[in-house]
Amino acid sequence: MRFPKRKMRFTAHYQGDTDPEGWIVLDIANTDLDGVSKLYLSLSDIQQVREGGDLAEERLRQARALLGGIGSGEEA
Q1: pTM for the full predicted model
Q2: Which residues pair with 10 in a beta bridge?
Q3: Dihedral angle at the C-alpha atoms of 60, 62, 67, 68, nearest 10 degrees?
Q4: Which residues pair with 59 in a beta bridge?
Q5: What is the structure's pLDDT at 66?
Q6: Half-sphere exposure of 4 toward its Cβ, with a 13 Å CA cutoff?
Q7: Segment-wise mean pLDDT, segments of 10 residues, the chain, 76 residues
Q8: In 3D, which of 27, 30, 1, 24 has the Cα closest to residue 12?
Q9: Tell me, what's the pLDDT at 33?
């Protein structure tokens, strides 16, 4: 099974650890894996996901900015 890129994401943070090389997260929720014994991940897809950055971190920064918190240009 070729794993869809839309179900991959990159994160630089996992279980309290931070690593600039990061981790690739495969979202297998709601994926029919019955009979699947192998997953194929395109290295070019992985590189694109990684270059896209850590969306969770970016979304947190945006939310804080919208709420006027740290990261909005004003220091607490």
Answers
A1: 0.57
A2: 24
A3: 110
A4: none
A5: 85
A6: 9
A7: 86 86 86 83 83 74 79 49
A8: 24
A9: 82
How many residues in the chain? 76
Name the DSSP letter for residue 72: S
Contact 64, 72 (CB under 8 A): yes
Q: What is the pLDDT of residue 73?
A: 54
pLDDT of residue 71: 53
The angle formed by the CA atoms of residues 10, 44 and 47, to the nearest 5 degrees, is 30
Query: Residue 22: its pLDDT value, please?
Result: 85
How many Cα atoms sit within 13 Å of 72 on the Cβ side?
10
- Residues of the chain by 3-state class (helix, strand, coil), percent to 5: 30, 25, 45
- CB-CB neighbours of 56 under 10 Å: 14
Whole-angstrom Cα distance, residue 24 to residue 6?
A: 12
